[in-house]
């Protein structure tokens, strides 16, 4: 497990379009279908990463809270299922059902969507406004496995509140930290660019 920080995609970047399979329904779903009227939270995550596991229950609650304000959450797993079969679609579906996800869990088998968003780690959070312009990217909060800081969601929730008010956020945005995305051979950013 390599501790990796977010790339920190530039603010106001337009959300890249995608069409990915929802592991629960088996149906292809697009960003346009899934976006919220007031905003969209896109989370790159996976099943096995301890940093994701650490925040999982809080993330499920955050998605419910955000949906009450018409901000939809979309979770995407881009990990290689060759090297990490525990992040495959069957296991993803099982996790989504066990944890009662109220949001779609999509699989990015080609890893093209992770590249489009410049996702680097799990979890990696991207909060887009109603126009799908990037408002916030970075960490959920400063809690990590083993550091004893409480899970509050302060960073993400503060951005959410500012965004809904239509205000400029003057607070520093810190990168998320977690496991690196598990790239297929020849597909990592270092190998492609």
> Termini separation (Å)?
23 Å
Oligomer: single chain
Q: Supply the CATH class.
A: Alpha Beta
Radius of gyration: 15 Å
The CATH architecture: 3-Layer(aba) Sandwich
Number of helices, counting only DSSP H or I runs of 4 residues or more: 6
Into how many domains do the coordinates divide? Answer: 1
Q: Which stretches are poorly predicted, pLDDT < 50 over at least 5 residues? A: none
SSE-based structural type? alpha+beta
Strand order of the largest sheet: 3-2-6-5-4-8-9
The topology string of helices and strands comes to EEEHEHEHEHEEEHEH
Describe the structure.
The chain has about 190 residues and is of the alpha+beta class. It has one domain: Glutaredoxin (3-Layer(aba) Sandwich), CATH 3.40.30.10. The chain is about 30% helix and about 20% strand. The chain has six helices and ten strands, in the order βββαβαβαβαβββαβα. The chain starts with a strand and ends with a helix. The model has no long low-confidence stretch (mean pLDDT about 95).
